[in-house]
Specification:
Strand content: 15-25%
Largest sheet: 7 strands, mixed
Number of strands: 19
Shape: globular
Bound molecules: zinc ion
Distance between the termini: 12 Å
Helix content: 25-40%
Number of helices: 9
């Protein structure tokens, strides 16, 4: 079968390869892949900056944002032939640590987790994949192709789950305003889930993008092309989805009293900025502010994500997928184009 592969650590090693069918050891359910979403992590892997092949192998089948249709499933499993499904990315570490032991592999303490398409396990970017039934999530068939957004939405669902749990440290917590920095797929999905919670939504972008302005407007939100320092308000909840060092610096300490800043974007090391630690500490202490980081998602978050997508306007979700590339030309999906929001690779 055709598979999208890379040699992790080696730049520009991406190609389409003929590989054997998925091994039975990957799980009892066989899935025919419909589409794979492409994100920054995939680009980092293809650039040679990130990613690990399975032990003893030199190449990794890439693809962690999946969508497919079940072709074979044991009678005892929770899915049936024909179901539209998405595979969960992370697997618990083998120790397991206290978090992985209770199914919270997204909170793994020892870093020995594995991830499909990223870390030591082949991904979903092949014509077929096999998977353990408990690591599959069913998608509402009405979502169709937009089901490929489930994995990035699960990351956002975790960010919201933890933000709300932190907020509930004060019985009076009742947020009104949300600022999302970054208007990529994760930022837009964070805005969607904020709008679903009835918040006044603001999305900050670094350059004008008409479709994104339209999408934020359709959520009832306000689209800004600016820097965080120029905004005239302090949000109750801030979701930082750029990972851009100057934006991260500007958001720290810039939430309202009892505010929560959630860091979702990842930054490369090696960016020194002057920060007035005294002022930052003063505002954080005197205003009971919180800054926290979040990554990945567990099964609960995939289920929350499925519910968020199910409730979303289908036309709005359709605007998110701006380009489709066939599997045989999947490397085109890695080249950024100005109108891109989410690019997907299709398996015919
Ligand atoms: Zn663990």
């Amino acid at each position: 079968m055709r598979a999208l592969t890379v040699a992790p650590g080696i730049a520009n090693s991406a190609r389409v390869e003929d590989v054997p069918g998925p091994p039975a050891a990957d799980g009892a359910v066989l899935v025919r892949t419909t589409a794979i979403g492409v994100c920054g992590t995939d680009r980092d892997i293809v650039c040679g900056h990130y990613g690990w092949a399975p032990p003893g192998q030199s190449r990794l089948v890439i693809g962690h944002e999946s969508l497919g249709v079940v072709r074979e499933a044991p009678a005892s499993s929770c899915v049936n032939v024909g179901d539209l499904v998405v595979g969960i990315v992370r697997r618990p570490d083998p120790v397991p640590c206290p978090s992985c032991a209770v199914g919270e592999w997204d909170m793994c303490r020892n870093g020995r987790y594995t991830e499909r398409g990223i870390k030591e396990r082949h991904g979903f970017g092949s014509e077929y994949f096999r998977i353990e039934p408990e690591f599959l999530v069913k998608v509402d068939p009405a979502l169709g192709e937009a089901g490929v957004l489930l994995e990035p939405t699960s990351v956002v669902a975790k960010a919201w789950d933890h933000t709300e749990r932190i907020g509930q440290r004060a019985r009076s917590w009742n947020p009104k305003t949300l600022l999302v920095t970054g208007a990529g797929p994760v930022g837009l999905l964070a805005a969607l889930m904020g709008a679903q919670r009835g918040l006044e939504v603001h999305v900050l972008d670094h350059h004008e993008h008409r479709a994104k302005r339209d999408m934020v407007g359709r959520l009832g939100g306000i689209y800004h092309v600016d820097t965080p320092a120029n905004l005239r308000f302090k949000p109750d909840v801030l979701m930082e989805c750029t990972g851009a060092p100057s934006v991260v610096r500007d958001v720290l300490g810039n939430t309202a009293a009892s505010g929560i800043a959630c860091l979702v974007g990842v930054t490369e090391p090696g960016h020194d900025f002057e920060v007035d630690v005294g002022a930052l500490n003063r505002s954080m202490v005197l205003d009971n502010n919180t800054v926290f980081g979040t990554v990945n998602a567990n099964k609960l978050h995939y289920e929350m994500a499925g519910e968020a997508l199910r409730k979303a306007d289908k036309g709005w979700l359709g605007m998110m997928i701006t380009r489709r590339e066939p599997a045989e030309h999947w490397t085109r999906s890695l080249q950024r184009q100005p109108d891109d929001i989410k690019v997907i690779v299709e398996f015919s």
